Amino acid sequence: MAEETEKTPDPTAKQLAAARKFVAEHGKPSKGVVENIGRAGARVVLVGADGALGDIVVPATGTGEALVEAVEDLEPAEWDAATVNAVKIGPAHRHRMAGPAGRRS
Asked: Are 67 and 16 in contact (CB under 8 A)?
């Protein structure tokens, strides 16, 4: 019986463009944290030099790692103290993250 090997999909041009745009808008170097999100694939959390957050969903962790590797001035990172402390979450982001239940009338 032949062993099946699945090829990890490459990042798409759209995903690469989104990551490059984020770096251009939020400073160099930016960081990329690849997180497995189960069947949905992986999430690449982007942390800009200015502390901004962004994310890109990709089909696999390998795709996320390839995305980070392919984008100039995007460094691979983990949720260590340096990365967490680099994040600056403002009131608008907190309000959006709260969703409808967290909003006051």
From this structure: yes
The region, left, alpha or beta by phi > 0 then psi within -120 to 50, assigned to residue 77 is beta
Rounded to the nearest integer, the mean pLDDT of the chain is: 89
pLDDT digits (tens, 9 = 90+) for 76-92: 999 999 999 999 987 77
Q: Would you say 64 and 18 are in contact if contact means Cβ atoms under 8 Å apart?
A: no
- Residue 96 phi, psi (nearest 5): -65, -40
Q: Please say if the pLDDT value at position 99 is more than 90.
A: no
The H-assigned helical ranges of the chain are 13-26, 61-70, 81-86, 91-98
Cβ contacts of residue 14 below 8 Å, gap of 6+? none
Residue 1 has a pLDDT of 45
